[in-house]
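Q: what sequence does this backbone want?
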């Protein structure tokens, strides 16, 4: 592969936008399942793709009252995130962003003692135009940081493969709270479906659904776990890896290399699965062309 050269396409020199995603998990008869939203076809970011609930960090996420509503201090959340370069307040705001985005897009609320009836109250207040912080204050709710774990951090390359914008996204995992039901917001998504991680990748491979590489690789990682407890325990036992894909243009498409690949500057693997993906004709696949490479 020595004939591969770095892409000569224009690079985006602007810093990536801070963002957060919440990977909601549940145990089902066939094993662990993940909630995937389908973005509207007219969406400006990943139109029509299956994604985890999430979005960019808002100024409101660092509000004093919201941060005080967490069941852990900003310093504790900062340590769990594993990013010493951040201020504790900024780290805690990313936890808030993940909870807020999941609530706005699915109606699922990671707050202490919230069942479906209480979640419906919160949804109704949100529909009336209240901000997330106002809803939490009105209902006197405490945000449940103990129920979520940082999973990984993905930074979009300077020359993105699919998106026009760059993001620095922190992925968190959390169990679907007991008694709550995920219901997608029609303004944010056209569907919300629970799928086994392997099932979702197989459907992507068959061309039935579309996804971006961070979602595919996260699902490949989650496919290693039999249940939610195992996935949450794994997340709690390690520092979230930072994944900065290294893109190279090839005669057949764009090659994305991940930590642990010979062409990536970080020698240590960040996750299981292939260390490189080929992006051609709008689809990702392991360079070997075999779906099993995601599960080996």
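A:
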């Amino acid at each position: 592969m020595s004939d591969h050269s770095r892409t000569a396409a224009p690079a985006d020199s602007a810093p990536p936008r801070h963002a957060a995603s919440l990977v909601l998990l549940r145990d089902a008869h066939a094993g662990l399942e993940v909630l995937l939203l389908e973005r509207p076809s007219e969406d400006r970011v990943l139109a029509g793709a299956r994604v985890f609930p999430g979005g960019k960090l808002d100024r409101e996420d660092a509000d004093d009252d919201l941060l005080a509503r967490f069941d852990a201090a900003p310093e504790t959340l900062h340590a769990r995130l594993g990013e010493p370069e951040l201020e504790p307040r900024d780290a805690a705001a990313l936890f808030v962003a993940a909870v807020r985005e999941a609530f706005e897009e699915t109606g699922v609320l990671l707050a202490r003692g919230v069942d479906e009836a209480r979640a419906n109250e919160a949804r109704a207040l949100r529909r009336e135009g209240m901000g997330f912080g106002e809803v939490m204050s009105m209902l006197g709710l405490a945000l449940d940081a103990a129920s979520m774990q940082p999973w990984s951090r993905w930074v979009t390359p300077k020359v993105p493969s699919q998106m026009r914008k760059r993001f620095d996204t922190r992925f968190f995992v959390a169990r679907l709270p007991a008694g709550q039901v995920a219901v997608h917001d029609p303004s944010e998504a056209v569907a919300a479906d629970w799928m086994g991680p392997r099932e979702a990748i197989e459907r992507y491979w068959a061309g039935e659904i579309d996804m971006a590489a961070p979602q595919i690789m996260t699902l490949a990682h989650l496919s290693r776990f039999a249940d939610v407890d195992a996935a949450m325990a794994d997340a709690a036992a390690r520092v979230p890896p930072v994944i900065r894909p290294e893109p190279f243009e090839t005669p057949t498409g764009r090659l994305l290399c991940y930590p642990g690949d010979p062409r990536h500057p970080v020698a240590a693997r960040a996750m299981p699965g292939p260390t490189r993906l080929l992006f051609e004709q709008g689809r990702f696949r392991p360079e070997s062309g075999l779906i099993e490479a995601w599960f080996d």
